[in-house]
Amino acid sequence: MRDAMDTKKYVEGMQNWAKVVSKAWTDEKFKKRLSLETNKVLLEEGVPIDSDFQYKILENTKDEINFIIPIERKLIRPKKLNKPTNTSKPIKFKPL
Question: Fewer CB near the last or first residue (10 Å), C or N of the chain?
């Protein structure tokens, strides 16, 4: 049951993230606030985040694409590691 709830929360979070992106594309004030108060805005918009971390928004442009280098595994605290999930079933997202 926990895996189903985790999956549901993840899917809802990704749907909410898609709404945040869409809103940032159409509302400059929102995009600026998202950039300045990222954690607060993400929580307000229903995007689940870990409050132990500070999040940062990077925006791709027509001339620049961002690649993120993940944290080294040895730097990740053990409590932050999730058990592997069953990836054999694709997750279907509803269109906005």
Answer: N
Going by C-alpha positions, the residue among 45, 42, 40, 47 that lies closest to residue 10 is 47
Residue 58 near residue 34 (C-beta atoms within 8 A): no
pLDDT at 63 over 70: yes
Output the pLDDT for position 6.
Answer: 85
The token duo for 25 is 């594309």
On whether the CB atoms of residues 24 and 41 are closer than 8 A, the answer is no
**What's this model's pTM, rounded to 2 decimal places?**
0.66
Q: 47 and 23 in contact (C-beta within 8 Å)?
A: no
Q: Which two tokens stand for residue 34?
A: 């998202």
Structure-block tokens of residue 9: 């929360």
Domain ranges across the chain: 2-80
Cα angle 19-25-28, degrees, rounded to a multiple of 5: 115
